[in-house]
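Thanks for the sequence, V.! I ran AraC-like ligand binding domain-containing protein right away. Repeating your input here for the record:
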Amino acid sequence: MTPQQQRTYGFKYKGDHQDRIASIHAIGHEYRQDEDYKWHGLKRHEESKVVFQYTLSGQGMIEIDGSTHSLTEGQAFLVELPSDHVYYLSNDATHWEFIFITLYGNEAFNFFNNYTKAHGHFIKLNRQARPIQQLFYLLDKIETNQVTSSYQLAADAFTFLMNLSHDLEHPETPNKDLPVAIAKSIAYIKQHFQTDISLPDIVHASGLSTYHFSRLFQREMKDSPIKYVTKMRINHALNLLQDPNFSIEEVARQVGYEDANYFTKVFKQYVELTPSDYRHNKSIMPVNQIFFN
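Predicted structure:
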Protein backbone atom coordinates (compact mmCIF):
# COMPACT_ATOMS: atom_id res chain seq x y z
CA MET A 1 0.00 0.00 0.00
CA THR A 2 1.07 3.58 -0.69
CA PRO A 3 -0.17 6.90 0.74
CA GLN A 4 -2.16 7.36 -2.47
CA GLN A 5 -4.06 4.10 -1.84
CA GLN A 6 -5.44 4.95 1.61
CA ARG A 7 -8.98 3.78 2.29
CA THR A 8 -10.87 5.58 5.06
CA TYR A 9 -14.66 5.83 5.44
CA GLY A 10 -17.02 7.45 7.93
CA PHE A 11 -20.72 6.92 8.60
CA LYS A 12 -23.59 9.12 9.78
CA TYR A 13 -26.49 6.66 9.58
CA LYS A 14 -29.43 7.23 11.91
CA GLY A 15 -30.92 4.62 14.24
CA ASP A 16 -31.18 4.28 18.01
CA HIS A 17 -30.30 0.58 17.79
CA GLN A 18 -26.72 1.63 17.02
CA ASP A 19 -26.35 3.22 20.47
CA ARG A 20 -28.13 0.34 22.19
CA ILE A 21 -25.90 -2.30 20.59
CA ALA A 22 -22.91 -1.13 18.54
CA SER A 23 -22.08 0.50 15.24
CA ILE A 24 -19.23 1.80 13.11
CA HIS A 25 -18.29 5.48 13.16
CA ALA A 26 -15.25 5.10 10.89
CA ILE A 27 -13.01 2.41 9.39
CA GLY A 28 -9.85 2.61 7.35
CA HIS A 29 -6.59 1.19 6.04
CA GLU A 30 -3.82 3.81 6.01
CA TYR A 31 -0.12 4.10 5.19
CA ARG A 32 1.44 7.08 6.97
CA GLN A 33 4.86 8.60 6.28
CA ASP A 34 4.23 12.17 7.41
CA GLU A 35 5.78 13.19 10.70
CA ASP A 36 2.81 15.42 11.50
CA TYR A 37 0.50 12.39 11.78
CA LYS A 38 -0.54 12.66 15.43
CA TRP A 39 -3.84 12.17 17.26
CA HIS A 40 -4.44 13.62 20.73
CA GLY A 41 -7.23 11.84 22.54
CA LEU A 42 -8.35 14.99 24.34
CA LYS A 43 -8.28 17.25 21.27
CA ARG A 44 -10.56 15.29 18.96
CA HIS A 45 -14.17 16.11 18.24
CA GLU A 46 -15.42 12.51 18.50
CA GLU A 47 -17.34 11.76 21.68
CA SER A 48 -18.13 8.38 23.24
CA LYS A 49 -16.16 6.30 20.75
CA VAL A 50 -13.77 3.34 20.96
CA VAL A 51 -10.79 3.07 18.59
CA PHE A 52 -9.15 -0.26 17.68
CA GLN A 53 -6.01 0.22 15.56
CA TYR A 54 -3.82 -2.66 14.34
CA THR A 55 -0.29 -2.29 12.92
CA LEU A 56 0.29 -4.08 9.63
CA SER A 57 3.85 -2.83 9.00
CA GLY A 58 6.24 -0.10 10.04
CA GLN A 59 6.06 1.41 13.51
CA GLY A 60 3.84 3.75 15.47
CA MET A 61 4.01 5.02 19.03
CA ILE A 62 1.39 5.66 21.68
CA GLU A 63 1.65 7.55 24.95
CA ILE A 64 -0.92 6.39 27.47
CA ASP A 65 -1.15 5.91 31.25
CA GLY A 66 2.15 7.74 31.73
CA SER A 67 4.15 5.42 29.46
CA THR A 68 5.26 5.34 25.82
CA HIS A 69 4.76 2.14 23.83
CA SER A 70 6.03 1.04 20.44
CA LEU A 71 3.48 -0.42 18.01
CA THR A 72 4.94 -2.85 15.50
CA GLU A 73 3.48 -5.51 13.20
CA GLY A 74 0.79 -7.59 14.90
CA GLN A 75 0.19 -5.15 17.75
CA ALA A 76 -3.06 -3.26 18.30
CA PHE A 77 -4.26 -0.71 20.79
CA LEU A 78 -7.70 0.00 22.19
CA VAL A 79 -8.56 3.52 23.38
CA GLU A 80 -11.61 5.52 24.33
CA LEU A 81 -12.51 8.93 22.92
CA PRO A 82 -12.05 11.26 24.61
CA SER A 83 -9.22 10.12 26.89
CA ASP A 84 -5.64 11.10 27.72
CA HIS A 85 -3.49 9.47 25.04
CA VAL A 86 -1.46 10.41 21.96
CA TYR A 87 -0.50 8.17 19.05
CA TYR A 88 1.80 9.05 16.16
CA LEU A 89 4.37 7.87 13.63
CA SER A 90 7.61 6.79 15.30
CA ASN A 91 10.61 9.06 14.67
CA ASP A 92 12.66 5.97 13.84
CA ALA A 93 10.19 4.57 11.31
CA THR A 94 9.93 5.13 7.56
CA HIS A 95 6.18 4.50 7.70
CA TRP A 96 3.27 3.19 9.75
CA GLU A 97 0.70 1.04 7.98
CA PHE A 98 -2.40 0.14 9.99
CA ILE A 99 -6.04 -0.81 9.81
CA PHE A 100 -8.53 0.69 12.25
CA ILE A 101 -12.16 0.77 13.25
CA THR A 102 -13.91 3.35 15.43
CA LEU A 103 -16.97 2.00 17.21
CA TYR A 104 -19.71 3.29 19.45
CA GLY A 105 -22.69 1.87 21.34
CA ASN A 106 -23.24 0.02 24.60
CA GLU A 107 -21.63 -3.26 23.51
CA ALA A 108 -18.53 -1.47 22.23
CA PHE A 109 -18.04 0.14 25.63
CA ASN A 110 -18.87 -3.08 27.49
CA PHE A 111 -16.06 -4.79 25.57
CA PHE A 112 -13.67 -1.86 26.05
CA ASN A 113 -14.28 -1.62 29.80
CA ASN A 114 -14.05 -5.37 30.41
CA TYR A 115 -10.92 -5.86 28.31
CA THR A 116 -8.94 -2.84 29.48
CA LYS A 117 -9.79 -3.51 33.11
CA ALA A 118 -8.40 -7.03 32.83
CA HIS A 119 -5.58 -6.62 30.29
CA GLY A 120 -4.85 -2.97 29.58
CA HIS A 121 -4.92 -1.20 26.22
CA PHE A 122 -2.86 -3.53 24.03
CA ILE A 123 -3.74 -6.60 21.98
CA LYS A 124 -1.46 -8.98 20.06
CA LEU A 125 -3.05 -10.70 17.06
CA ASN A 126 -1.95 -12.62 13.99
CA ARG A 127 -2.77 -10.90 10.71
CA GLN A 128 -4.89 -13.93 9.77
CA ALA A 129 -7.00 -13.63 12.93
CA ARG A 130 -10.76 -13.36 12.41
CA PRO A 131 -11.18 -9.73 13.52
CA ILE A 132 -8.35 -8.48 11.29
CA GLN A 133 -9.61 -10.38 8.27
CA GLN A 134 -13.10 -9.07 8.97
CA LEU A 135 -11.84 -5.48 8.79
CA PHE A 136 -10.38 -6.10 5.32
CA TYR A 137 -13.62 -7.79 4.29
CA LEU A 138 -15.65 -4.83 5.59
CA LEU A 139 -13.54 -2.39 3.60
CA ASP A 140 -14.17 -4.41 0.45
CA LYS A 141 -17.91 -4.44 1.18
CA ILE A 142 -17.97 -0.69 1.72
CA GLU A 143 -16.05 0.01 -1.48
CA THR A 144 -18.53 -2.07 -3.50
CA ASN A 145 -21.55 -0.33 -1.93
CA GLN A 146 -22.69 -3.37 0.02
CA VAL A 147 -23.18 -1.49 3.31
CA THR A 148 -26.26 0.65 2.85
CA SER A 149 -28.09 0.74 6.19
CA SER A 150 -27.54 1.29 9.90
CA TYR A 151 -28.66 -2.28 10.54
CA GLN A 152 -25.81 -3.65 8.45
CA LEU A 153 -23.37 -1.38 10.28
CA ALA A 154 -24.68 -2.53 13.66
CA ALA A 155 -24.45 -6.19 12.64
CA ASP A 156 -20.90 -5.76 11.33
CA ALA A 157 -19.81 -3.88 14.45
CA PHE A 158 -21.23 -6.54 16.77
CA THR A 159 -19.70 -9.33 14.68
CA PHE A 160 -16.31 -7.63 14.93
CA LEU A 161 -16.63 -7.43 18.74
CA MET A 162 -17.61 -11.10 18.94
CA ASN A 163 -14.76 -12.17 16.65
CA LEU A 164 -12.32 -10.15 18.73
CA SER A 165 -13.70 -11.60 21.97
CA HIS A 166 -13.50 -15.13 20.57
CA ASP A 167 -9.92 -14.83 19.37
CA LEU A 168 -8.77 -13.29 22.64
CA GLU A 169 -10.45 -15.98 24.72
CA HIS A 170 -9.61 -18.86 22.37
CA PRO A 171 -6.41 -17.97 20.52
CA GLU A 172 -5.89 -20.16 17.49
CA THR A 173 -2.86 -22.40 17.27
CA PRO A 174 -1.42 -23.62 13.97
CA ASN A 175 -2.98 -26.83 12.69
CA LYS A 176 -0.85 -29.83 13.48
CA ASP A 177 -1.11 -33.57 13.30
CA LEU A 178 -2.03 -35.38 16.48
CA PRO A 179 0.71 -37.44 18.12
CA VAL A 180 0.57 -41.00 16.85
CA ALA A 181 -0.35 -42.37 20.28
CA ILE A 182 -3.34 -40.02 20.56
CA ALA A 183 -4.48 -40.76 17.01
CA LYS A 184 -4.36 -44.48 17.82
CA SER A 185 -6.39 -44.00 20.99
CA ILE A 186 -9.07 -41.95 19.22
CA ALA A 187 -9.37 -44.55 16.47
CA TYR A 188 -9.80 -47.19 19.18
CA ILE A 189 -12.48 -45.12 20.95
CA LYS A 190 -14.44 -44.62 17.73
CA GLN A 191 -14.39 -48.36 17.06
CA HIS A 192 -15.28 -49.45 20.59
CA PHE A 193 -17.25 -46.71 22.37
CA GLN A 194 -20.41 -48.86 22.03
CA THR A 195 -18.80 -51.46 24.27
CA ASP A 196 -17.79 -51.31 27.91
CA ILE A 197 -14.31 -49.87 27.30
CA SER A 198 -12.18 -48.61 30.17
CA LEU A 199 -9.24 -46.26 30.56
CA PRO A 200 -6.74 -49.19 30.63
CA ASP A 201 -8.16 -50.37 27.27
CA ILE A 202 -7.61 -46.94 25.71
CA VAL A 203 -4.15 -46.60 27.25
CA HIS A 204 -3.18 -50.02 25.89
CA ALA A 205 -4.23 -48.94 22.38
CA SER A 206 -1.98 -45.87 22.63
CA GLY A 207 1.12 -47.81 23.64
CA LEU A 208 2.03 -45.30 26.38
CA SER A 209 2.04 -45.43 30.16
CA THR A 210 -1.18 -44.34 31.88
CA TYR A 211 0.45 -41.24 33.33
CA HIS A 212 2.06 -40.09 30.09
CA PHE A 213 -1.01 -40.90 28.00
CA SER A 214 -3.48 -39.09 30.27
CA ARG A 215 -1.37 -35.91 30.30
CA LEU A 216 -0.82 -36.00 26.54
CA PHE A 217 -4.49 -36.69 25.77
CA GLN A 218 -5.65 -33.82 28.00
CA ARG A 219 -3.17 -31.46 26.35
CA GLU A 220 -4.14 -32.37 22.80
CA MET A 221 -7.90 -32.94 23.14
CA LYS A 222 -8.72 -30.55 26.01
CA ASP A 223 -10.59 -33.38 27.71
CA SER A 224 -9.81 -36.44 29.75
CA PRO A 225 -10.06 -39.75 27.82
CA ILE A 226 -13.17 -40.80 29.77
CA LYS A 227 -14.94 -37.47 29.16
CA TYR A 228 -14.10 -37.77 25.48
CA VAL A 229 -15.70 -41.24 25.39
CA THR A 230 -18.74 -40.00 27.31
CA LYS A 231 -19.36 -37.08 24.95
CA MET A 232 -19.09 -39.41 21.95
CA ARG A 233 -21.63 -41.75 23.54
CA ILE A 234 -24.04 -38.93 24.36
CA ASN A 235 -23.94 -37.60 20.81
CA HIS A 236 -24.56 -41.07 19.40
CA ALA A 237 -27.48 -41.46 21.81
CA LEU A 238 -29.02 -38.20 20.51
CA ASN A 239 -29.42 -39.83 17.10
CA LEU A 240 -30.80 -43.09 18.46
CA LEU A 241 -33.36 -41.31 20.63
CA GLN A 242 -34.96 -39.86 17.50
CA ASP A 243 -36.00 -43.39 16.51
CA PRO A 244 -39.07 -44.38 18.59
CA ASN A 245 -38.40 -48.06 17.86
CA PHE A 246 -35.48 -48.04 20.31
CA SER A 247 -36.29 -48.22 24.01
CA ILE A 248 -34.18 -46.26 26.47
CA GLU A 249 -32.60 -49.55 27.55
CA GLU A 250 -31.66 -50.37 23.95
CA VAL A 251 -30.21 -46.91 23.39
CA ALA A 252 -28.15 -47.29 26.56
CA ARG A 253 -26.74 -50.63 25.42
CA GLN A 254 -25.93 -49.34 21.95
CA VAL A 255 -23.79 -46.55 23.38
CA GLY A 256 -21.89 -48.71 25.84
CA TYR A 257 -24.02 -48.62 29.02
CA GLU A 258 -25.38 -51.89 30.38
CA ASP A 259 -27.22 -50.05 33.16
CA ALA A 260 -30.00 -47.83 31.73
CA ASN A 261 -30.34 -45.96 35.03
CA TYR A 262 -26.67 -44.98 34.95
CA PHE A 263 -27.00 -43.96 31.28
CA THR A 264 -29.96 -41.75 32.25
CA LYS A 265 -27.91 -40.13 35.00
CA VAL A 266 -24.97 -39.40 32.69
CA PHE A 267 -27.21 -38.16 29.87
CA LYS A 268 -29.00 -35.74 32.18
CA GLN A 269 -25.67 -34.45 33.48
CA TYR A 270 -24.66 -33.41 29.97
CA VAL A 271 -27.98 -32.56 28.28
CA GLU A 272 -29.90 -31.37 31.38
CA LEU A 273 -32.81 -33.65 30.47
CA THR A 274 -33.38 -37.36 30.93
CA PRO A 275 -33.33 -39.41 27.70
CA SER A 276 -37.10 -39.90 27.98
CA ASP A 277 -37.75 -36.18 28.50
CA TYR A 278 -35.46 -35.32 25.59
CA ARG A 279 -37.31 -37.74 23.33
CA HIS A 280 -40.82 -36.57 24.24
CA ASN A 281 -40.29 -32.84 24.82
CA LYS A 282 -41.94 -31.24 21.78
CA SER A 283 -40.60 -27.80 22.68
CA ILE A 284 -37.01 -28.92 21.96
CA MET A 285 -35.70 -29.33 18.43
CA PRO A 286 -33.81 -32.64 18.20
CA VAL A 287 -30.17 -32.37 17.13
CA ASN A 288 -27.60 -34.85 15.89
CA GLN A 289 -24.72 -33.51 17.90
CA ILE A 290 -24.12 -31.21 20.85
CA PHE A 291 -20.83 -29.38 21.29
CA PHE A 292 -19.75 -29.18 24.92
CA ASN A 293 -17.24 -26.78 26.45
